[in-house]
Every structure is written in C-alpha cells, then in structure tokens.
Design goal:
Helix 2 packs across helix 3 and helix 4 packs across helix 5. A hairpin with a 2-residue loop joins strand 23 (404-407) and strand 24 (410-413). The chain is of the alpha/beta class.
C-alpha cells in the first residue's frame, strides 16, 4: 500500500490529495507533513514502539499522522478526544502505546498522557525536514492499524490489520475494474475509528485521487449532501442510513458526475436504493459487505440498473460474491458447509483477514476455525451474520445471528418482521426488538420512525405474513431513530428505550 502511495506522490506532486473544510492540500504538501512528523517521531527514539496513538480529528495533520506512523514502521491506533477518558486509557494500555500524536492541544488527551506516562507530540508547528518517504524495514510484516470496538465484557476489543491485509484490500478493489483514476474525487465521511474510513482515505491516495472530508460541524447528513454537490464527488462511500435520512430530499438531487455510490455497514434496502439511483443517473450503486476483521469489505455486488436491485432477501439487496483472494462459505451450527439456498452463518477466509483479536486468545478460539477448501486447509472467520447463496453464486444477507432470537420456544428472525413492516408502512427505519419484563417473560415490540398511521391495520397485515408468535405485542412510533457516530441506526439505544416504552 505504501509503495502505491509513494508512486502517487511521485506521479502527481501538484494534484490535490485532501480537501478539508474548504482547504486544499497537494501530494507534495502531504509528503512534506508526513516527513516532518516521521522525523519528529524518530528524534524521540522511543524503544520497542509498534503502535502509535493518533488523536482523530477532521484535520490535515491527523491524516498525515496516520501515514507518518506507518512510514515509521508502526501501526496507528485512532483515539477520540471526546471519548470517556477511561476508555482511552484502556485502549492505550491494551495497545501498549508510548506515543500519541495530536494536531492540537486537548485537555483530555493531556490528562491521558499524564496518567499513563505517555509522550505527547503536537504536530502543527514542527520544523520542516527533508522529504523522505523511504519504506521502513520489513514494512510488509508490520501492523497497519488496530481499531478498538466495543467488547461484550466492557473491555474494548482490538482488531489488528497488517500492511499485507491493507494491500490485499487495495489490490482486490482495483481488480474490480472500476473506472477510477487520479482525476476522481472520493468522499470521506467517517470517523477514523470506523473501518470504512480506511478505504475512503487510503484507496484514493493509492491512485493519486483526492479525498474530500465531510465536516463534523452541524448536521452530518446535511453536510454529506453539501459535499456531494459542492465538491462534485465522483465516488461516494456511505452507510445506507445516510440515504435513508436524505430520502425526503431526493427530488432536489441530481449528481450527474457521481460514478459510484458504494454502500456498506448495514443492509441496503432495495426500494431506497432504486430511488437513490435516480439521484445518480449516470452512476452505479454498489453494495459491499465485510466485517472489520476482513479489512473493511471483501464482497461486492454491482447494481447497474433496477434489475440488479431486484435480487433481494427480506427487501435487502444482495451482497454479491467474494472479491479477489477471498472465499466465502455458509455453515450450520456444527460448522458444516451448506449448499445453495440454505441459510446459515457466513464465514470468511481471505488475504484481508486479521491475524486474530489483539491479546484475546479466548475470543480467537470462538471466532476462527479450520476448513478444507479445494484440498487445502484454511482459517475461516465466523462473521456472526446469517446468509445464503443462490444458484448463481450471489450471497444474500440475512441479518445478525443476534437478531435471530428464541421467542415462546420458536426461532424468530427479527429482520423478517422488519421487512414486512417496511413493506406495509413505507417507513425505511424499523426495528423489531425483544423486551424482557421484570417477571422474566418476553414480549416482541416493533418500533417505526415517524409513523403515526393505524397500528391496528399494520398488525393485521403482519398477521397475514408471519406466524402468530412473530406478530408484535406492541407497536410504537419514535419521532426519529438514534444514530451512532458512523451513521448506523443505534439498536443498543433503541433496546435501552424498551423499558421506558414497556411501562407505557
């Protein structure tokens, strides 16, 4: 990956690398900043340093710091200054951080460094050094980054990705044959703690294209619209919730130069995708799939027209086929591979697959297993997602295993209830959730966003589509659904609201 970036800097020194809050930065300026930070890192002479913390801001210095960490022979660990200090301290301890890079002074980060005896390097006013983008020794073997996500035990769960994994993602993306070049403008709307940011930052920099970040000030979704329009974006990677939110404004949108709308991170609802396609009349809708553990995404489905968008499961667009150097299987509860049209857990082996969770052997034993493919034993990752594949080899996403619950002794797929509720109501955001009362009994609730029509008719419709035990006990409308920092519907917040709703 770094080789590709070096080539882009050499070929396109005066082209724009980043546009951030209206300010443009060339590949030469980026090379200079990386070199300045790298020189400062080396001058500190910190022994046995494998990972460097980077305070993640929508800032040129932050993006240069990610690359400077890699060029220093280290992986980066993104930290959010607005996270609770206890969480950042846990991450710093787990990653054995010795150094944190920050573009500006921040009281919380200064406290973190003081509490944990870490070195803090402010990058804004460093001395200018000679530009040096030489590769570190054995960089192919080094970590690229570690992302820490929420762990079920309360301890952050670390997913390490190597430089080989990251190169495999870039290679697989370019092998798709998409019409992208140094003249393209990629949108980057994600916090750097979300894995989608890895693709939207590094893929364009590997081909000499420009990265246009979406401001975090104000309303994020409105800023996406503004960025698409004013920055003349040609490649937009988004989570589906973004267009769900923008749906009321579709008639005003016409992005003629948008070549690719790539969606990942959630199920892509076919009806909404068809409407979005009208906003991008010359573009291709792409539905991607992949967990953080497989370096952003490893499956792809191109939708050139509505015929492609008609290949669905529970209203969600197909997630297509495996990308280069990836194999996908669907297994039953005993990890036995299933044939086509049988639903089970989607499992992945790939050149993009993490070497394993960071310092968590128990989790590794649960999540990875060996399986024979074409006579060769490979390591597979259990995604926790339900899927099946059709006779054409295209995979369908069937929701999370966690969304498949036992209710009254029956196995219930919450995604099926949500699909039928969307069909009847026309509401995109729906959530079927199980509420456990104080007496231990379970009730099925259905939440819809901003839906105040007759709930009785909706219940009667559901009764014609699903068994009686899948008809919700209660239906509620919320003015708006909560979203997390990455633009996904926050089901944990919705789950927490059930107690309040259950008492009404």
């Amino acid at each position: 990956m770094l080789n590709r970036f070096i080539n882009a800097c050499t070929q396109f020194p005066d082209k724009t690398a980043f546009v951030i809050n209206g300010n443009s930065f060339t590949y030469t300026q980026l090379s200079q900043k990386i070199s300045d930070i790298r020189t400062a890192i080396f001058s500190l002479n910190i022994p046995e340093q494998k990972l460097i913390g980077v305070v993640a801001e929508d800032d040129f210095d932050t993006y240069a710091s990610l690359l400077a960490a890699m060029f220093s022979g280290c992986g980066y660990v993104p930290l959010l200054s607005h996270n609770p200090i206890d969480r950042n301290e846990s991450i710093a301890e787990l990653a054995d951080l010795k150094l944190i890079l920050t573009p500006k002074k921040d009281e919380q980060i200064e406290t973190l460094c003081s509490n944990k005896n870490l070195t803090l390097l402010e990058t804004k006013s460093l001395s200018q050094s000679e530009i040096d983008l030489s590769l570190p020794l054995n960089y192919d073997e080094q970590l690229a980054y570690i992302l820490f996500t929420s762990g079920s035990t309360g301890v952050p769960k670390g997913v390490p990705i190597t430089m080989k994994n990251l190169e495999a993602l870039i290679q697989a993306f370019l092998a798709l044959g998409y019409s992208v070049s140094e003249n393209d403008r990629f949108m980057q709307m994600f916090e750097l703690t979300f894995d989608f940011s890895v693709f939207t930052t590094f893929a364009p920099l590997c081909i000499g294209a420009s990265v246009h970040t979406v401001s975090s000030e104000g309303i994020k979704f409105a800023n996406v619209y503004t960025t698409l329009e004013e920055q003349n974006i040609t490649f937009a990677a988004m989570v589906p919730s973004v267009i769900n939110y923008l749906r009321p404004y579709f008639e005003e949108m016409n992005f003629e130069n948008l070549k690719y709308s790539l969606f990942c991170g959630e199920a892509l609802i076919a009806d909404v995708a068809k409407e979005w396609k009208q906003c991008s009349p010359n573009g291709v809708v792409v539905n991607a799939y992949g967990p953080t553990e497989a370096t952003v995404f490893c499956m792809m489905y191109d939708c050139h027209d509505n015929m492609n968008l008609n290949k669905t499961y529970n209203g969600s667009v197909s997630i297509g086929k495996a990308m280069l150097n990836t194999d996908i299987i669907v297994v039953d509860e005993n990890l036995k591979a299933l044939p086509s049209n049988e639903k089970g857990e989607l499992c992945i082996t790939s050149a993009q697959l993490t070497p394993g969770y960071w310092k968590d052997e128990e989790k590794n034993k649960e999540a990875f297993f060996k399986h024979i493919v074409n006579g060769k034993e490979k390591t597979f990752y259990r995604s926790g997602d339900l899927a099946l594949y059709d006779d054409e080899g295209d995979f369908m996403f069937g929701g999370r295993l966690d969304y498949q619950v036992k209710l009254y002794g029956f196995r219930v797929e919450l995604g099926e209830i949500e699909h039928h509720a969307r069909t009847f109501s026309g509401v995109t955001n729906t959530a079927a959730l199980v509420y456990e009362t104080e007496t231990g009994s379970q009730m099925l609730y259905l939440l819809l966003e901003n839906y105040d029509v007759d709930f009785t008719s909706l219940k009667e419709f559901l009764a014609t589509k699903v068994p009686h035990y899948m008809v919700p006990s209660k239906i509620f409308s919320l003015p708006s659904f909560p979203f997390n920092n990455n633009g996904k519907v926050d089901r944990k917040v919705l789950q927490n609201k059930l107690k309040e709703l259950g008492e009404t």
